[in-house]
Design a protein that fits this description.
326 residues, D-amino Acid Aminotransferase, Chain A, domain 1, six-stranded mixed beta sheet
Length: 326
């Protein structure tokens, strides 16, 4: 069989919300859900190229990960994983990752790499030494992956656990301050760009990616800045209003979001569903291009998030991919 070149790009496989049925638990594996940035690592001839979930080249953003191709023995490999910043207690720190995500200058990225380094956590291998592995079962791909990653400084291949241990692993994720777990069918192939029921994510807290399509101008100490965000999710091509986010912002974040949103101003309401009048009347509308992540208490019967709070900007996500997940 001829050795195949690495693909120029590939969209990662995505998990759906849910959990495996108890009667079928033996056919699943369970991984921790890491709170970071999804990335594909294209390794060849000792060089590493990192691409975001949306296909953007983010290699220069994380210079400390350039050694991944060398760490895997200079083998040709396509790896799927998560870029994570760990805090002093050894827990993923999404807030620490935020300044890293939006940097494209090599000089600035180098400075940040020294003060807030990241780790690449590989959880799948999609091609190795010219051999595509997408059609192999997940369990087989993990057997190939585990000895490939040296588990040294900056690169790890976290373990997966038997499906019947889901509750114990979920409890461990709570104790470690993690977002939750991902259950994967042991016999499932890798389906690029697909949100599939063969991968299921079980979250400890409710979180949701949302598209910003407007804002309410700030008052008082927020004068001249955004006061709150009007956000939505896509459903069948329509942008559906789902909440009003007014908390969770630092002063620095407010300034950053204001600067990012101003060029996106538009005259008309971009939502395809009603926005409550108290938010629509003072709203400044925006082209729906910015994606943020929020935490919230629950969904209401009207399909709105109760008490959403800003968590971070997601430049690695495409607006049209944002759907209701929880």
């Amino acid at each position: 069989m001829d050795r195949l070149a690495l693909p120029s790009s590939l969209r990662p496989m995505l998990a759906s919300p849910g959990r495996p049925p108890d009667y079928d638990a033996g056919n699943w594996g369970v991984e921790m859900k890491w709170d970071g940035v999804r990335a594909l690592a294209f390794c060849e001839d000792g060089r590493t190229t990192l691409r975001s979930r949306a296909g953007k080249d983010i290699t220069a953003t994380y210079p400390e990960l350039a050694g991944l191709a060398r760490a895997t023995g200079h083998r040709q490999a396509l790896l799927d994983g998560e870029i994570v910043a760990f805090g002093p207690g050894g827990q993923p720190d999404f807030e620490a990752l935020q300044p890293r995500m939006h940097v494209s200058s090599a000089e600035a990225a180098g400075r940040l790499a020294a003060t807030a380094p990241v780790t690449f956590l590989a959880f799948d291998v999609l091609q190795l030494d010219g051999r595509p592995l997408l059609a192999l079962p997940y369990a087989d791909r993990r057997e190939i992956l585990d000895p490939l990653i040296p588990n040294g400084s900056g690169f790890l291949s976290p373990p997966f656990f038997p499906g019947p241990d889901l509750e114990a692993v979920l409890e461990a994720s709570v104790q470690q301050g993690l977002e939750g777990v991902v259950a994967k069918r042991l016999d499932s192939r890798y389906e690029p760009g697909t949100r599939t029921a063969n991968w299921l994510k079980v979250k400890n807290t409710l979180s949701q990616e949302v598209v910003v399509a407007g804002w309410k101008p700030g008052k008082g100490n927020r004068e001249g800045l955004i006061g709150s965000l009007l956000v939505g999710v896509y459903d069948g091509g329509d942008l559906i209003y789902c909440g009003h986010v007014g908390t969770g912002f630092t002063d620095k974040t407010l300034r950053m979001l204001t600067a990012r949103l101003r060029p996106l101003r538009r005259p008309g309401n971009p939502f395809d569903s009603p926005v409550p009048p108290q938010y629509a009347r003072p709203a400044v509308w925006a082209e729906p291009r910015l994606v943020v992540e929020v935490t919230f208490e629950r969904w209401t019967r009207a399909g709105r998030m109760r008490a959403p709070s800003y968590r971070g900007l997601r430049d690695d996500k495409e607006p049209r991919d944002v759907i209701r997940e929880t």
